[in-house]
Amino acid sequence: MAKLARLGLSEEEVERMAGELSGILEHVDRIAELDLDDVEPTSHVVELENVLRADVPHESLSPDVALASAPDPVEGAFRVPSPQAEE
User: Fold this and answer.
1) What's the mean pLDDT in 61-73?
2) % helix, strand, coil for the chain, step of 5
3) Paired residues of 74 in beta bridges
4) pLDDT > 90: what percent of the chain?
5) 42 vs 36: CA distance, rounded Å
6) Is residue 68 part of a domain?
7) Labelling 78: which of 11, 21, 52, 67 has CA 20 to 30 A away?
8) 3-state DSSP assignment of residue 69
């Protein structure tokens, strides 16, 4: 598998990973033995809830208010330093 994944593993790492892979496959075999016919497919084991606020439209800032504390606005926009100026 390491060759297929193009991983450069030492012989010691290959032996250790082989043992870990065997353990994983044993767990998969145990899961395969379970009767899951009545279990609904799911992508999460717990119910997910949106923890963000509701997306309710509201009035936004006017350009004048938004630019009021800008250090150097230009033509109704924020002016930022050029990346070349920092070099």
Assistant:
1) 91
2) 35, 0, 60
3) 77
4) 34
5) 12
6) no
7) 52
8) coil
Structural domain count of the chain: 1
The pTM of this model reads 0.39
Which two structure tokens, joined as six digits, stand for 21? 């892979």
Give, as one character, the DSSP assignment of residue 77. Answer: B
User: How far is the C-alpha of 81 from the C-alpha of 45, rounded, in Å?
Assistant: 48
Neighbours of 9 (CB within 10 A): 14
Token pair 């496959």: residue:
25
Confidence of residue 30 (pLDDT cuts 50, 70, 90): very high
The length of the chain is 87
Tens of pLDDT along 37-57? 888 888 887 887 777 888 899
Tell me the two tokens of residue 50: 């949106």
The amino acid that residue 19 corresponds to is G
Is 87 within a domain?
no
- On whether residue 52 sits in a domain, the answer given is no
User: Cα separation of 70 and 80, whole Å?
Assistant: 10
Domain range for residue 2?
Answer: 1-33
